[in-house]
């Protein structure tokens, strides 16, 4: 029998590799821009058409490439950035795997013009699916310009898999922002067709932040700086009262590379402690500098996670840096936005303590408005929604509460005995003892089942918002909202696009607090994103959960007897009464026997 194993042709091997490196236009944008940064460019221009689907062009004024290098750059594992394995541990560049250009060239129609500073003519290459179609000398600017046209033109399945333009554009904006923040000394511009999205002159980090996120950030930034012999943390955090309901403006960089880390995010959040209003997220752009030997650099090219060998130490430094910053900014309210990070944080040395107290006082007593009439209506409604199907749900109670079903039917006498405990729990006498319901978790369960049902049947009613307010979102969130527009309206929101990244909420789900449209909507999107990053659940379920979380009664809210009664009734009419959507128990029964045992003398 003859041999049958053959090496794959390069074009196919590259296409396969491309699957890993290039998932969507944004990944190509990131790779091309990183190459420009590695090439020492001081000006980088990004131009896209149709969210990068038809064109991505990156023009830089960096080193450029010789004719041979230009050809070589398209080969897999061709890189100028490492020569030997040890180099991996002292890596200063963004790229090192030498895969990106080969991958992009395998799945697009690519054109490159590049010239070294000391050469008169540059090189012009036209490549289609890894095949070089043209190679000619050309008069061009110093540096490199690469155009990637019709990404995935030769892999229809991948192309069809791309999301809508707003969603793909959101991903590109995310990548662009991360690189622009990490390299504030480089001039960046970004245009889609003829519309300029960002125009960012080189400057200080604080200026870059303001140029990206808007003037209002100017007074809100507090500088961070903390250093140990292991690690240095610098950057800015937003003042607590500036925290947003929506996540997405939190940036962590390790050695100038954007990373995601729930653990270090937690370090920042814990520094803010109770300074933040509930469910809000502070703005931050933090840079962690650490000797590369303490981190694992050989991570997957598209992954943004990172491993440190002493994560806890880094946690502590990040936390300290942020604590100090938020202690200091209050002393320098009109912070000189042009001042250096160092000066601000020196100012704050030793003064953070007293300010912590100030903030604790300000934020620790949350004010909550309760609109009784509204909740009464809401309860009426949820009661109606939930009444049928009395039997099967009792079977689902877990062992300890298995015999509770009967007991939950309270006599008229017992019904009177409803007590709210610490504005968090509802206590009620049941036959086997004392039932304690967590009002927040219970109500979340009720609303979750209601919303899920509405998403399935599209039956939600909407009430007109009498004072519709425009909501301006980040480009990324705007794209997300457009993508989910159908589902959001199935929940009862009525949205209308109102200019760039802005929508107006004309209607909100019926029976939710009047006039709450804007904050409820923002909360919904925010919660949706959190769930999206933390859990992998289907879109509808996520929406139902998110809205239930945000619209539900919270701990700390005073309830009248009728409300408590209605909550309990609705909860036990749910198909799964005993767990919140997140799987936490909604109630607990303190058995009479147990209570007796506490008083038993033997
Ligand atoms: P890597 O960045 O991992 O080395 P790439 O495939 O992204 O791999 O790039 C291959 C090589 O092509 C780089 O090592 C670099 O030498 C060269 N190169 C790519 N883009 C540019 C650019 N914009 N300017 C100068 N050289 C570039
Ligand atoms: Mg690269």
Structural class: alpha+beta
Count up the helices. 21
Spatial extent as radius of gyration: 29 Å
* Order of strands, widest sheet: 5-4-3-6-2-1-7-8
- The best one-word shape is elongated
Number of strands: 23
> Could you report the average pLDDT, rounded to the nearest whole number?
80
Uncertain regions: pLDDT < 50 for 5+ in a row? 330-407
Oligomer: single chain
Bound molecules: adenosine-5'-diphosphate, magnesium ion
Distance between the termini: 87 Å
Task: Sketch the major β-sheet.
Answer: 8 strands, mixed
In words, what does this structure look like?
The protein is an alpha+beta fold and 602 residues long. The strands form 5 sheets. The chain has an 8-stranded mixed β-sheet with strand order 5-4-3-6-2-1-7-8. Strand 3 (109-115) and strand 4 form a beta hairpin. Helix 6 (165-182) runs antiparallel to helix 16. The longest helix has 19 residues, at 439-457. The chain starts with 9 loop residues before the first helix and ends with a helix. The structure holds adenosine-5'-diphosphate (ADP) and magnesium ion. Magnesium ion binds next to helix 2.
